[in-house]
From TrEMBL:
Function: Catalyzes the condensation of pantoate with beta-alanine in an ATP-dependent reaction via a pantoyl-adenylate intermediate.
PANTHER family the UniProt entry points to: CYTIDYLATE KINASE/PANTOATE-BETA-ALANINE LIGASE, PANTOATE--BETA-ALANINE LIGASE
Protein name: Pantothenate synthetase
Note: The reaction proceeds by a bi uni uni bi ping pong mechanism.
Molecular function via GO: ATP binding; pantoate-beta-alanine ligase activity
Length: 281
């Protein structure tokens, strides 16, 4: 049976019943198959799984979509029940930040200043602050995050390691629609035309990742994005798996952020680079 709690006191009472390891899946709600995959992976290992649902104001910029972010608690609860989640923690803003905005917050360091960090100042500080608070509140031993938000996952891993937080961080591969679109709570804002345009992101990543020479990877991906007038690219970046400079050969990551209409989308894929394999477009 899945128990819904809103207050930190009620959460603590449920956590006291945990027979062993506590797993957490943190979400902002509007749950889809991507979130459900995280729950399934968590359930495979842990008998006690907490899902948190909280749209964290601290990680939204002043001109971002905090107010209009979808909130669908009843459906979310049904999804958590289906997936055998033990506790759903859906706190109010006051439950999470009883004294108002915290005066001590996380500093993401250099990894937080590139890519998403450059486009969304303050986002990663707000995100890491709430992740740390939710780890404390849920007393989780293991926490699951999606590769869809690859830089977020890298920063959370780094925070857990650098600050000896004693929690295991597990990354889960991105869940996509059949046609390649990465699932996102924000996809519901796309009109049918915009959704067609948005497919250029995953197509660019897929076609780029099919090349193995860095120049061709970027050229192919750029070309596909440029051919789609509905897409305004924020960045397209080829990096190492640690989000540092791309290696000459070996495992790398291709990441994209773009606006389709007023909806900002991100996506990324793994790829292998091999030097000297450039082929004409
Ligand atoms: P969000 O509700 O967008 O904050 O996402 C909550 C968690 O679900 C994060 O760890 C995300 O990376 C993960 N997530 C979101 N979309 C996907 C997806 N398409 N595939 C896998 N994980 C996802």
């Amino acid at each position: 049976m899945t128990v819904l709690v809103h207050s930190r006191a009620a959460l603590a009472a449920e956590l006291a019943k945990a027979p062993g390891e506590i797993a957490v899946v943190m979400t902002m709600g509007a749950l889809h198959e991507g979130h459900r995959q995280l729950m399934r992976v968590a359930r495979e290992r842990s008998a006690f799984v907490v899902v948190t649902i909280f749209v964290n104001p601290l990680q939204f910029g002043p001109n971002e979509d905090f107010e209009k972010y979808p909130r669908t608690l009843d459906d979310d609860l049904a999804a958590c029940r289906d997936e055998g989640v033990t506790v759903v923690f859906a706190p109010s803003r006051d439950d999470v930040y009883p004294g108002g905005a915290p005066s001590i917050t996380m500093h993401p360091g250099p990894l937080g200043e590139i890519l998403e960090g450059e486009s969304r100042p303050g986002h990663f500080s707000g995100m890491l602050t709430v992740v740390q608070k939710l780890l404390m509140l849920t007393r989780a031993n293991v926490a699951y995050f999606g590769e869809k938000d690859f830089q977020q996952l890298a920063l959370i891993r780094r925070m857990a390691r650098d600050l000896d937080m004693g929690v295991e961080i597990v990354g889960v591969p991105t869940v996509r629609e059949i046609d390649g679109l990465a699932l996102s709570s924000r996809n519901r804002f796309l009109s049918p035309d915009q959704r067609r345009s948005a497919l250029a992101l995953s197509r660019a990543l897929r076609e780029g990742a099919a090349r193995s020479d860095p120049d061709s990877v970027l050229a192919v991906a750029h070309k596909i994005l440029a051919e789609e007038p509905g897409v305004r690219v924020d960045y397209l970046a080829l990096t190492g798996t640690d989000l540092g400079a791309a290696p000459e050969s070996g495992a790398a990551r291709l990441l994209v952020a773009a606006k389709v209409g007023s909806t900002r989308l991100i996506d990324n894929v793994a790829l292998q680079l091999t030097p000297g394999t450039g082929a004409p477009l």
